[in-house]
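User: Fold this; tokens only.

Assistant: Input:
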Amino acid sequence: MKKLKTICVFCGSGTGSNPVYGEAAGFLGDLLSRQSLNLVYGGSNIGLMGIVSAAVRDGGGKVTGVIPERIAENVPGQDGITMEVVPGMHERKAMMYKLSDAFISLPGGIGTLEETFEAWTWNQLGYHAKPLALLNINGYFDSLLDFLDNMSSEGFLKGSQRDALIVDTDPENLMAKISAWKPPEGVKWESLKPSS
């Protein structure tokens, strides 16, 4: 895997009901800046998005927010953060994926899950070979991980793809796993190619 330069963080525009989520987002942002990594994120200045982006920026890291026009109208610009305004959500995700070397998902809502699963799907289909990780703060993703295990045991998710999803409860351990990650063998649909 190439050297990591830019990490995309998917996370909520809210802070959740437990202060531990905001604390972990701030710690992750600080860790990224200490590791001289740039941040790409959804562009909001509130919730976990605002916390992680401020921590990277305040630590001297480069921060790029990618935000759709419709949302940008309601989000003020932020000092020290480059904002890329795009037409809509599809373009937002495509740009976030293009600008990033790896993806980390923090707690969030359906938008966070949608971004996470699309990045994972693109990996599964061979559109990119970039690590995807869940920072499982306070057991937030436990039920989702159980569901994914069931999906795999029921034959709808290959074990190699399930294993490709990096999970940890500690930001430093998570970053070490991302750095050591290797893409799974094979791409979905490869076996269906006509033989030449």
